[in-house]
Amino acid sequence: MECDDYGLTRTLERENLNLNPLQRGGVLPAEAREALYEFSDGYSICDYCEGRLDQIKKPDINRFLDDLADFINIDLVRTVHGAREGKFAVMHALCNKGDTIIVDGNAHYTTHLAAERNHLKIIETPNNGHPTFEIKPETYKQTLEDAIDKTEIKLAVLTHVDGDYGNLTNAKAIASTCKKLGVPLLLNCAYSMGRMPIDAKDIGADFIVGSGHKSMAASGPIGVLGMTSEWEDTVLKRSERHEKKEIEMLGCTSRGAPIATLMASFPHVKERVQRWDEEVKKTRHFVKEMEKLGEIIQLGVKPKEHDLVRFETPIFDNIARSHPRRGFFLYEELKRRRIVGIKRGQTRWFKCSVYSMTMEQIEYIINTFKDIIKKYQP
Amino acid sequence: MECDDYGLTRTLERENLNLNPLQRGGVLPAEAREALYEFSDGYSICDYCEGRLDQIKKPDINRFLDDLADFINIDLVRTVHGAREGKFAVMHALCNKGDTIIVDGNAHYTTHLAAERNHLKIIETPNNGHPTFEIKPETYKQTLEDAIDKTEIKLAVLTHVDGDYGNLTNAKAIASTCKKLGVPLLLNCAYSMGRMPIDAKDIGADFIVGSGHKSMAASGPIGVLGMTSEWEDTVLKRSERHEKKEIEMLGCTSRGAPIATLMASFPHVKERVQRWDEEVKKTRHFVKEMEKLGEIIQLGVKPKEHDLVRFETPIFDNIARSHPRRGFFLYEELKRRRIVGIKRGQTRWFKCSVYSMTMEQIEYIINTFKDIIKKYQP
Ligand SMILES: Cc1ncc(COP(=O)(O)O)c(C=O)c1O
Ligand SMILES: Cc1ncc(COP(=O)(O)O)c(C=O)c1O
């Protein structure tokens, strides 16, 4: 059986401080681990199903989805396999091959792939470049107006918080533009829903997607797709032949343990978004202290409004040039001190997050960077 | 917080014998429960990702997928979210809106939904009706030939073992017809892959899908999509903008714990398919003894070649007529004796499976049915 050893042990999160922004919001609380255990077997969530996953009463998926809709203040929600599958479903339901959509210049690659899989053309609202890389509402407006002059725009997509710079966009202003111009807006909250409070109605979004494994303390793959009731008939259209089943959902989506973890984590998630201000404060402190080390510059909007931080780090790049391990030195120095999550080989810049860490842990991380710099000071 | 109690405890499988065919093949062995624990956190499978889930080396998803391709003897495989998502992806990659495909009359509703979501027309090969409901290769051939006379058929779908009668189709004969007529064949092995040996090359299928949570002892949602290399460029086409990413997979599919359980269960699954003959023997014994009770008739092909059994049960329907609990009596009598998995209220017919049960457990189940009948004998 030794050839079947695929290395299925994971000590990374248990034994280290993990700075990977992708993983900071997906750590399970104890109650979600229990739910995972309870619903580990295939189709176990379907014990009491009467034909629709979203209507199951035991466990109470039905009520949970209502609560989730309240939580983000939107008319109705479904779970999907992730943010990307949610985006794909909306585009698929609203657009035809060859249609054009508008997206922001900081969109995640999965937005592009969802569009490409639907054979859609993309018009992009550029960000304002180095160093803040901001998506300005006025640029979005201008781009959308220009686009509409040329062709019909079937959908607008906006990344609420992007994965490159952790910039929080002014979704409300952009939603208002979209509404005026008659274009439905899909807000990608993969990096925000479950971390910070979201009010879809207040923002004015037609659709909203979230990522359970990324920002809602859930085991993957699972995502959230919310919409206003005006879109229900389009996106949740039922099958003619199997009248209970929603076509775009292929009948059922999250038929497994991930939905149990999303439900079990929900009280924890609701509580933590209330403490979002503290998280932002910690992030700002972290940035300030890191920048003090010299030749470390935070990119993106300042001060930070999200925990994802991108640093330009000429200081580490300079060390790498003469280091026998080259670009690997930083990863290795950090790893030795039980800090992980920065990509191997990267020294010119990196992304990181101290989301949900204690102040002690954050100080330890800052001091570690300081020590590494000191060690290589000429 | 009491309003957040969604009832996330599941004792059904621990405390009862579960006859639900949907769930018999999805029970996790201990090693898969461990893997679930290790990879419970969101995106934990992505620790060492360099841009493609299927190429991750730690855990060794890359080698696992090769081993999985060998296991079903096909050129290459990807994991998807389930059998339905695999069928949708193949149809989406091969067909255009309005195209026509052929499916068998025992196809699962998810085959219909995958086609409907792709806006495809369906031509159906009928089964031969009561009591065996067989899909005959000659009927499939005739239907396909007639269809081709009228329109172009872009894809043929065949259910290897269907979920209504548990009939095993003659996939090899039908594949040979499809090959002769130049129509690619997608074989839906949701109920067979992971239970019985599958040799896609020997059968001659172009595509094959499996269901991890249904028949491969995995936690859901996860499925397997296999294909011959001739289809790689069509189905696994890469994005123009994000050149590593496969469009139809939206970049990555199983970014979560389910893939870890599929990998951990693989040795167990490989071993158990070798014992498939024993399972069939147990099923035949179960059917024989149940039919002896009188007015219990196995539908579908005889003798059974799969563990899913559908019984017509006039005996229980007669009892229900005069029972104060009506159709619920059977469910309740069984439940009292710790047997579950037969739908509440059903007495005219039911589906069940004794897959992976011991002979003692099977005898207990047979005796329980016998006792219930005796209790209500006039
Ligand atoms: C902004 C953004 N959108 C979408 C995604 C993809 O999320 P999911 O895995 O739920 O599809 C990510 C993941 O990194 C992201 O950062
Ligand atoms: C024959 C058949 N195909 C497909 C499916 C769906 O499988 P999945 O949940 O993996 O999409 C089922 C599930 O019951 C089935 O019986």
Automatic annotation (TrEMBL), chains A, B:
InterPro entries: PyrdxlP-dep_Trfase, PyrdxlP-dep_Trfase_major, PyrdxlP-dep_Trfase_small, Sep_Cys-tRNA_synth_arc, SepSecS/SepCysS. The modification N6-(pyridoxal phosphate)lysine is found at residue 214. Its EC number is 2.5.1.73. Pyridoxal 5'-phosphate binds at residues 83-84, 188, 211-213. Pfam families: SepSecS. The keyword Protein biosynthesis applies. Keywords: Protein biosynthesis, Pyridoxal phosphate, Transferase. NCBIfam families: PRK09331.1, SepCysS. Converts O-phospho-L-seryl-tRNA(Cys) (Sep-tRNA(Cys)) to L-cysteinyl-tRNA(Cys) (Cys-tRNA(Cys)). Belongs to the SepCysS family. Homodimer. Interacts with SepRS. This is O-phospho-L-seryl-tRNA:Cys-tRNA synthase. It comes from Methanothermobacter tenebrarum.
